[in-house]
From TrEMBL:
Organism: Laceyella tengchongensis
Protein name: NitT/TauT family transport system ATP-binding protein
Lineage of origin: Bacteria, Bacillati, Bacillota, Bacilli, Bacillales
CDD domains: ABC_NrtD_SsuB_transporters
Domain ABC transporter per the UniProt entry, residue ranges: 7-238
Keywords associated with the record: ATP-binding, Nucleotide-binding, Transport
Coiled-coil region: none
Regions that span the bilayer: none
InterPro entries: AAA+_ATPase, ABC_transporter-like_ATP-bd, ABC_transporter-like_CS, ABC_transporter_ATP-bind, P-loop_NTPase
Molecular function per GO: ATP binding; ATP hydrolysis activity
Amino acid sequence: MASDYAVQIEDLTHTYFTKTEEVTAIRSLSLTVHPGEFVVLVGPSGCGKSTILSLIAGLIIPASGRIQLFGNPVNGPSPRIAYMLQKDGLLAWRTVAQNMILGLELRRQATAAAIADTHRLLDEMGLSHVAHHYPHQLSGGMRQRVALVRTLAVRPDLLLLDEPFSALDIQNKIHLEHLLTNVLKEQQKTAILVTHDLEEAIAIGDRVLVIGGRPGQIRYTLPIPTDIRALPPLEARAHPSFRSLFSELWREVNRIEKLA
Protein backbone atom coordinates (compact mmCIF):
# COMPACT_ATOMS: atom_id res chain seq x y z
CA MET A 1 0.00 0.00 0.00
CA ALA A 2 1.45 3.37 -1.04
CA SER A 3 1.91 5.94 1.69
CA ASP A 4 2.89 9.60 1.91
CA TYR A 5 5.00 8.75 4.96
CA ALA A 6 8.17 6.77 5.55
CA VAL A 7 7.14 6.39 9.20
CA GLN A 8 3.69 6.91 10.67
CA ILE A 9 3.14 6.47 14.40
CA GLU A 10 -0.33 6.82 15.90
CA ASP A 11 -1.16 7.01 19.60
CA LEU A 12 1.82 4.88 20.62
CA THR A 13 2.26 3.74 24.23
CA HIS A 14 4.93 1.42 25.57
CA THR A 15 5.22 -0.01 29.06
CA TYR A 16 7.96 -2.22 30.43
CA PHE A 17 8.33 -4.06 33.72
CA THR A 18 11.17 -4.05 36.23
CA LYS A 19 11.45 -6.34 39.26
CA THR A 20 9.59 -3.83 41.38
CA GLU A 21 7.38 -1.71 39.14
CA GLU A 22 5.59 -1.09 35.87
CA VAL A 23 7.06 1.83 33.90
CA THR A 24 5.38 3.57 30.98
CA ALA A 25 8.26 4.86 28.81
CA ILE A 26 6.13 6.74 26.24
CA ARG A 27 2.42 7.47 26.09
CA SER A 28 0.06 8.52 23.29
CA LEU A 29 2.89 9.51 20.96
CA SER A 30 2.09 10.33 17.33
CA LEU A 31 4.68 11.16 14.69
CA THR A 32 5.03 11.21 10.91
CA VAL A 33 8.29 11.25 8.94
CA HIS A 34 8.32 11.99 5.21
CA PRO A 35 10.49 10.03 2.76
CA GLY A 36 13.91 11.68 2.49
CA GLU A 37 13.47 13.60 5.75
CA PHE A 38 16.11 13.67 8.51
CA VAL A 39 14.38 13.90 11.90
CA VAL A 40 16.34 14.32 15.13
CA LEU A 41 15.12 13.38 18.62
CA VAL A 42 16.61 15.21 21.62
CA GLY A 43 15.65 15.38 25.26
CA PRO A 44 16.69 14.34 28.77
CA SER A 45 18.08 10.88 29.47
CA GLY A 46 15.37 8.31 30.17
CA CYS A 47 12.59 10.12 28.28
CA GLY A 48 12.06 7.31 25.76
CA LYS A 49 14.10 8.43 22.72
CA SER A 50 15.89 5.11 22.22
CA THR A 51 12.66 3.25 22.97
CA ILE A 52 11.03 5.05 20.03
CA LEU A 53 13.80 3.83 17.72
CA SER A 54 13.48 0.26 18.99
CA LEU A 55 9.72 0.35 18.43
CA ILE A 56 10.12 1.66 14.87
CA ALA A 57 12.74 -1.03 14.22
CA GLY A 58 10.30 -3.70 15.36
CA LEU A 59 12.67 -4.90 18.10
CA ILE A 60 9.98 -4.45 20.76
CA ILE A 61 6.21 -4.53 20.50
CA PRO A 62 4.23 -1.52 21.82
CA ALA A 63 1.57 -1.89 24.48
CA SER A 64 -0.84 0.00 22.23
CA GLY A 65 -0.90 2.17 19.13
CA ARG A 66 0.17 1.68 15.55
CA ILE A 67 3.44 2.00 13.63
CA GLN A 68 3.61 1.89 9.84
CA LEU A 69 6.72 1.80 7.69
CA PHE A 70 6.11 3.04 4.14
CA GLY A 71 2.43 2.16 4.54
CA ASN A 72 2.94 -1.31 6.02
CA PRO A 73 2.42 -2.25 9.67
CA VAL A 74 5.55 -2.93 11.72
CA ASN A 75 5.28 -6.39 13.25
CA GLY A 76 8.98 -7.13 13.63
CA PRO A 77 12.40 -6.24 12.17
CA SER A 78 12.29 -5.04 8.56
CA PRO A 79 14.98 -5.37 5.85
CA ARG A 80 14.13 -1.80 4.88
CA ILE A 81 15.67 -0.54 8.16
CA ALA A 82 19.30 -0.33 9.28
CA TYR A 83 20.22 0.57 12.87
CA MET A 84 23.50 2.20 13.93
CA LEU A 85 24.53 2.51 17.60
CA GLN A 86 27.21 4.36 19.55
CA LYS A 87 29.22 1.13 19.90
CA ASP A 88 30.64 0.18 16.51
CA GLY A 89 30.13 -3.57 16.99
CA LEU A 90 32.97 -4.54 14.66
CA LEU A 91 34.02 -8.18 14.95
CA ALA A 92 37.64 -8.38 16.16
CA TRP A 93 38.49 -11.45 14.06
CA ARG A 94 37.30 -9.97 10.77
CA THR A 95 39.13 -7.41 8.64
CA VAL A 96 37.56 -4.07 7.70
CA ALA A 97 36.62 -5.53 4.30
CA GLN A 98 34.99 -8.52 6.00
CA ASN A 99 33.24 -6.43 8.66
CA MET A 100 31.69 -4.00 6.22
CA ILE A 101 29.89 -6.74 4.26
CA LEU A 102 28.52 -8.51 7.35
CA GLY A 103 25.03 -7.08 6.88
CA LEU A 104 25.04 -8.09 3.23
CA GLU A 105 26.04 -11.62 4.19
CA LEU A 106 23.35 -11.90 6.85
CA ARG A 107 20.75 -10.76 4.32
CA ARG A 108 22.22 -13.01 1.61
CA GLN A 109 22.87 -9.96 -0.57
CA ALA A 110 26.68 -10.19 -0.83
CA THR A 111 26.83 -10.15 -4.62
CA ALA A 112 29.93 -8.98 -6.46
CA ALA A 113 28.14 -5.72 -7.35
CA ALA A 114 27.04 -5.09 -3.74
CA ILE A 115 30.56 -5.75 -2.42
CA ALA A 116 32.06 -3.43 -5.04
CA ASP A 117 29.59 -0.73 -4.01
CA THR A 118 30.64 -1.20 -0.38
CA HIS A 119 34.29 -0.70 -1.31
CA ARG A 120 33.27 2.50 -3.10
CA LEU A 121 31.63 3.70 0.12
CA LEU A 122 34.78 2.81 2.06
CA ASP A 123 36.80 4.88 -0.39
CA GLU A 124 34.40 7.83 0.08
CA MET A 125 35.04 7.52 3.83
CA GLY A 126 38.78 7.81 3.12
CA LEU A 127 39.50 4.31 4.40
CA SER A 128 40.30 2.20 1.35
CA HIS A 129 43.89 1.91 2.61
CA VAL A 130 42.78 0.01 5.74
CA ALA A 131 40.51 -2.54 4.04
CA HIS A 132 42.73 -5.41 5.21
CA HIS A 133 43.33 -4.07 8.72
CA TYR A 134 41.65 -5.44 11.83
CA PRO A 135 39.53 -3.30 14.19
CA HIS A 136 42.25 -3.10 16.87
CA GLN A 137 44.48 -1.35 14.33
CA LEU A 138 42.00 1.51 13.83
CA SER A 139 41.24 4.69 15.77
CA GLY A 140 37.78 5.22 17.26
CA GLY A 141 36.80 7.54 14.44
CA MET A 142 37.96 5.09 11.80
CA ARG A 143 36.06 2.23 13.44
CA GLN A 144 32.88 4.29 13.45
CA ARG A 145 33.35 5.13 9.77
CA VAL A 146 33.60 1.42 9.01
CA ALA A 147 30.43 0.85 11.05
CA LEU A 148 28.71 3.54 8.98
CA VAL A 149 29.81 1.84 5.75
CA ARG A 150 28.44 -1.48 7.04
CA THR A 151 25.14 0.21 7.92
CA LEU A 152 24.79 1.93 4.54
CA ALA A 153 25.96 -1.12 2.57
CA VAL A 154 22.54 -2.80 2.81
CA ARG A 155 20.99 0.33 1.25
CA PRO A 156 18.27 0.79 3.85
CA ASP A 157 15.24 2.92 3.09
CA LEU A 158 15.22 4.09 6.71
CA LEU A 159 18.33 4.64 8.82
CA LEU A 160 17.96 4.69 12.62
CA LEU A 161 20.89 6.28 14.48
CA ASP A 162 21.22 6.09 18.27
CA GLU A 163 23.98 8.53 19.28
CA PRO A 164 26.46 7.03 16.80
CA PHE A 165 28.99 9.88 17.05
CA SER A 166 28.73 10.78 20.75
CA ALA A 167 32.06 9.18 21.74
CA LEU A 168 34.05 10.93 19.02
CA ASP A 169 36.11 14.12 19.19
CA ILE A 170 34.60 17.14 17.47
CA GLN A 171 36.75 16.84 14.32
CA ASN A 172 35.78 13.21 13.70
CA LYS A 173 32.17 13.94 14.64
CA ILE A 174 31.78 16.73 12.08
CA HIS A 175 33.60 14.69 9.44
CA LEU A 176 31.19 11.78 9.92
CA GLU A 177 28.19 14.10 10.00
CA HIS A 178 29.30 15.44 6.62
CA LEU A 179 29.77 11.98 5.13
CA LEU A 180 26.43 10.77 6.46
CA THR A 181 24.38 13.73 5.24
CA ASN A 182 26.03 13.57 1.81
CA VAL A 183 25.13 9.90 1.37
CA LEU A 184 21.57 10.41 2.63
CA LYS A 185 20.99 13.30 0.24
CA GLU A 186 22.55 11.51 -2.73
CA GLN A 187 20.50 8.37 -2.12
CA GLN A 188 17.38 10.26 -0.91
CA LYS A 189 17.18 8.14 2.23
CA THR A 190 15.15 8.78 5.38
CA ALA A 191 16.84 8.96 8.78
CA ILE A 192 15.94 9.36 12.46
CA LEU A 193 18.75 10.32 14.85
CA VAL A 194 18.82 10.31 18.64
CA THR A 195 21.43 12.66 20.11
CA HIS A 196 22.19 14.73 23.19
CA ASP A 197 24.28 17.14 21.11
CA LEU A 198 21.99 20.08 20.32
CA GLU A 199 24.47 21.60 17.87
CA GLU A 200 24.58 18.34 15.95
CA ALA A 201 20.78 18.19 15.91
CA ILE A 202 20.52 21.62 14.26
CA ALA A 203 23.49 21.15 11.93
CA ILE A 204 22.27 17.93 10.28
CA GLY A 205 18.53 17.65 10.92
CA ASP A 206 15.56 18.85 8.89
CA ARG A 207 13.35 18.88 12.00
CA VAL A 208 14.23 18.52 15.69
CA LEU A 209 11.72 17.00 18.12
CA VAL A 210 12.17 17.49 21.85
CA ILE A 211 10.99 14.44 23.78
CA GLY A 212 10.35 14.89 27.47
CA GLY A 213 8.35 14.10 30.54
CA ARG A 214 7.64 10.73 32.06
CA PRO A 215 6.02 9.09 30.20
CA GLY A 216 7.82 10.62 27.22
CA GLN A 217 5.93 12.65 24.65
CA ILE A 218 6.82 15.12 21.89
CA ARG A 219 6.89 18.43 23.74
CA TYR A 220 8.36 20.78 21.14
CA THR A 221 9.18 20.84 17.42
CA LEU A 222 11.92 22.97 15.88
CA PRO A 223 11.90 23.11 12.05
CA ILE A 224 15.36 23.88 10.65
CA PRO A 225 15.32 26.67 8.02
CA THR A 226 16.08 25.67 4.44
CA ASP A 227 19.19 27.86 4.17
CA ILE A 228 20.81 26.03 7.10
CA ARG A 229 19.69 22.60 5.90
CA ALA A 230 21.38 23.26 2.54
CA LEU A 231 24.80 23.73 4.16
CA PRO A 232 27.38 21.12 5.20
CA PRO A 233 27.40 20.57 8.99
CA LEU A 234 30.50 22.70 9.67
CA GLU A 235 29.21 25.63 7.61
CA ALA A 236 25.75 25.27 9.16
CA ARG A 237 27.30 25.90 12.58
CA ALA A 238 28.68 29.21 11.29
CA HIS A 239 25.35 30.43 9.86
CA PRO A 240 24.15 33.74 11.42
CA SER A 241 20.88 32.13 12.61
CA PHE A 242 22.52 29.07 14.15
CA ARG A 243 23.12 30.51 17.63
CA SER A 244 19.55 31.75 18.00
CA LEU A 245 18.22 28.32 17.02
CA PHE A 246 20.59 26.71 19.50
CA SER A 247 19.40 29.06 22.26
CA GLU A 248 15.77 28.26 21.44
CA LEU A 249 16.41 24.52 21.51
CA TRP A 250 18.49 24.77 24.70
CA ARG A 251 15.71 26.72 26.42
CA GLU A 252 13.08 24.15 25.46
CA VAL A 253 15.16 21.14 26.50
CA ASN A 254 15.85 22.73 29.88
CA ARG A 255 12.19 23.61 30.33
CA ILE A 256 11.11 20.09 29.46
CA GLU A 257 13.74 18.51 31.74
CA LYS A 258 11.70 19.86 34.64
CA LEU A 259 8.76 17.68 33.58
CA ALA A 260 10.75 14.50 34.26
